[in-house]
């Protein structure tokens, strides 16, 4: 077969397929036949059916030809229609085409024109027939279907269609392809079991059984999906059985609920945190009450003694005893206010604190201890110049940890304090090490940070380490301790987000 013959056959096959499709469209129940016309090629006479005569306002005047019809065709379709009519009348070529017309009342209709030829016994064209069908509604429905399919295809939610018998995927939209990382040709060889690692075949059959037997219209469940790269993500799946008889398939609309799960986890953590805070606050209040009882009783006794004292010398001896009790009360209330504020997580702005300046400021508050113990203090800051933290928290953390070193120094040796700092990934690790009396503590034991009086030191009220941990927790950091009885203690504080 020559190339020209092959091309001609291919063209005729394409025309046949196109005309068949257009004819099927005209047979749609929503299509309405407007009417017919025929043109006698021998007598050159054009005749219209009554319906078209009325629609095109044809008044029977001779010479009008197709003009009443052509003039209603919209401009962008007019040349196509004229060409099809000319080829039919001059060359006897059949055709079928879609075009629009604008009626006298302004309405625009979509018409299907089908042109056929009647021949004599010798095969010579005699009459050209034309049929016009109004397919406006059909086109509208098709347009709506296309829009719906477009919405489904480009939905951010994942949409799958899989065979009710084989479970093989029949369709997967862009949202599913993008999130899963698979290609269309890969997915069509897969089943839901390939992307649902939590399901066995039996477990999945049990899940869809109510849909198959009709006891349920829809199944809603949560699981995890497996991406092509091996990562997992949580999903919520709405599953339905579609179709009738042997032509059934499951429709799965899948929602990626990663963000929802993160929010739920955050709420759960917040709930647990609030429970812990409330528990700590109750302990805090108990400790405050314990610390208030003694100074209040002492103040009451001293006040009573002052009232009873008749001699001036006795009164003068009693007055200085009021100062320690008042100081004790003042410190207790300051700790109370600080503990309540930090425990309730009131926002504080983080700033860059100069580490050496902050240490100098904190050590300046231990003037008497520095004179009494003459400690050796070394800095090992490893190029760490600043630490980002709310300044009030940072000062408090340093003071409480340094205070701990002074309080629990060993009387058997000269006090040695080493303050270290180093960058670890995006965090900065601060260490305060001493060679004090130390303590027995197991790894991971955080009981040392609970509110309780420390019996080994008479001036300890039990607030310091509790406040320190509360402050570190408030900035998202971590604090832990390592200690050995008789050798000393090291506190570690990790400050996050330091870059």
Which short descriptors sum up this protein?
single chain, alpha+beta, five-stranded antiparallel sheet, 15 helices, 43% helix
Q: Can you describe what's shown?
A:
- This protein is of the alpha+beta class.
- Helices cover 43% and strands 26% of the residues.
- The protein contains 15 helices and 17 strands.
- The strands form four sheets. The protein has a five-stranded antiparallel sheet with strand order 2-1-5-4-3, sandwiched between helices.
- A hairpin with a 5-residue loop joins strand 3 and strand 4 (108-119).
- The chain is elongated and about 145 Å long.
- The protein starts with a helix and ends with a strand.
- The model is unreliable at 1-31 (pLDDT under 50).
The secondary-structure class comes to alpha+beta
Spatial sequence of strands, sheet with the most strands? 2-1-5-4-3
Q: Into which percentage range does the β-strand content fall?
A: 25-35%
Number of helices in the DSSP assignment:
15
Number of strands: 17
Gyration radius, to the nearest Å?
A: 45 Å
Percent of residues in helices comes to 40-55%
> Distance between termini?
76 Å
Largest sheet: 5 strands, antiparallel
